[in-house]
Amino acid sequence: MEHRCEIPLASLSGASKRYGGTLALEEVDLELRAGQVLALLGTNGAGKTTAVSLLLGLLEPDAGQARLCGRSPRDLAARQGVGVMLQSGALAPTLAVSEHLDLVRSYYPDPLHVSECVAIAGLDGLLARRYGTLSGGQQRRVQFALAICGRPRVLFLDEPTTGLDIEARQGLWRGLRALVAGGTSVLLTTHYLEEAEALADRVVVLAGGRVVAEGSLDAVRARVDQRRIRCVTALDAAEVARWPGVRAANRDGGRLEVVTGTAEDVVRRLLAADPALSSLDVSRAGLAEAFLEITRDAPMQEAA
Ligand SMILES: Nc1ncnc2c1ncn2[C@@H]1O[C@H](COP(=O)(O)OP(=O)(O)OP(=O)(O)O)[C@@H](O)[C@H]1O
Fold first, then answer.
1. In CATH terms, are 10-221 and 227-284 the same topology?
2. Dihedral through CA 103, CA 105, CA 106, CA 110, nearest 10?
3. Do 118 and 147 touch, CB atoms closer than 8 A?
4. Is residue 169 very low, low, confident or very high in pLDDT (cuts 50, 70, 90)?
5. 60 alpha carbon to ligand 1 midpoint, in Å?
6. What is the CATH code for 227-284?
7. No. of helices (H) and no. of strands (E), the chain
């Protein structure tokens, strides 16, 4: 592999960024290491795009530091081998998809073959189409192809599957997994929690410009370690919701669904309270619940 760079491939240390009265990022630390897929999760306005912009040198931090391959992100050498797909991917509408691909491929010494780009990004039948005539989802796939066509060592994807239908989203995930298997490291931002669950080794959860959780998917889940209990019972949901350790209890037809951090205690109490209880199922709550739990108490910070 040519010129390997220092790890971490991308990092923020103590990075803060303010837009006028809004503190968009406050003392954020994060690292993307070789071989990783890091998902930056957060609700609208959490600071994800700002973090990516700092890492790419599109913005300068007010305090702290951004590094790309151990260098300033504004250093051309740092940006070599980096592929980028931002949210606002304005491309010439009158050029054909194949012309866009040829143009961007020409910037790189060893680009992917057009057929590889088509296969990875799902561009079958689109090469001859003018970019401006494509649907939003098709345009997103072209932007993805342009981000990967230079065989990037590091790929930044800012909400790559926003606007894609389920099939297209899963197609992009397959393409991304193929790249990762080939050695590409990825930092992606997403609102889609299942996207982080499907792709990422590590997650950083941002809320109000601060990192509120960081680690492996399992570690982030363990941080809130919740279980979902489902069962068929006549017990009253409102009453169960008041039991110690119960975060939520809701009824869905004949089934009761309980979210709790103390599953064993709650199961014991459910069985004692209703000997006729049946169809008991206990599962680990998904990242969605963990994420909501973590971000609930971290509102956006506005300066006075
Ligand atoms: N150019 C700007 N001028 C003023 N405020 C900005 C600017 N860009 C972002 N902000 C504010 O900074 C905060 C963080 O925005 P950012 O775009 O980084 O969040 P995000 O997590 O990417 O959100 P989304 O998921 O909606 O894209 C928000 O409150 C946003 O309104």
1. no
2. 180
3. no
4. confident
5. 15
6. 3.30.70.100
7. 11, 13
- Structure-block tokens of residue 103: 């143009």
Q: Which atom in ligand 1 lies closest to the alpha carbon of residue 191?
A: 25
- Single-letter code of the amino acid located at 164: L
**Which one-letter amino acid corresponds to residue 119?**
A
Which backbone phi and psi does 283 adopt, to 5 degrees?
A: -135, 160
The CATH architecture one would assign to domain 10-221 is 3-Layer(aba) Sandwich (3.40)
Its pTM stands at 0.78
Is the ipTM beyond the 0.95 threshold? yes
Residue 218 has pLDDT above 80, yes or no: no
**Substitution candidate for ligand 1 out of 26, 49, 204 with most atoms within 8 A of CB:** 49
Centroid of ligand 1 to alpha carbon of 213 (angstroms): 20
DSSP letter string over 191-254?
S-HHHHHHH-SEEEEEETTEEEEEEEHHHHHHHH--EEEEEE----HHHHHTSTTEEEEEEETT
**Å from CA of 209 to ligand 1 middle:** 9
For ligand 1, whether the C-beta of 58 sits within 6 Å is: no
Q: Where are the domains of the chain?
A: 10-221, 227-284
